[in-house]
Amino acid sequence: MFVALVAICGCVSVGRKIDQTKIEQITAGKTTRNQVVKLIGSPDQITTTAPGNVIFNYVFIHSTPKASTFIPVIGAFAGGANVQNQTLIITFTNDIVSSMINSYGGSEMGTGANAATSADLPDTTENKRTK
After folding, report:
1. How far apart are CA 30 and CA 32, in angstroms?
2. pTM for the full model?
């Protein structure tokens, strides 16, 4: 029970994960700024590039520590975390979506001898988010 509590407390998230099915409902040239906000919520950052041009940025980062991180001494050499990320950038011209970039993936952050291993990211399989 203690290990489960420590593992849960070790997770860190920034932003909110965006459902891929909602992203697929956004169409360049058709979807309005208000429709985007209704679908996926307000952006994490808004950038204005010129009169009539606005960019919405959505960012999600989730880090889950590996169990070995919590083992005294061994954790310093074999610990680390799986890090997932998602970035959605939507550009509007006159309040209509003109372009969209949807990027997601992840990496594994390791410590010591474990610093160069590959990530285990099951929810990016087949280019779809499951949560």
Report:
1. 6
2. 0.68
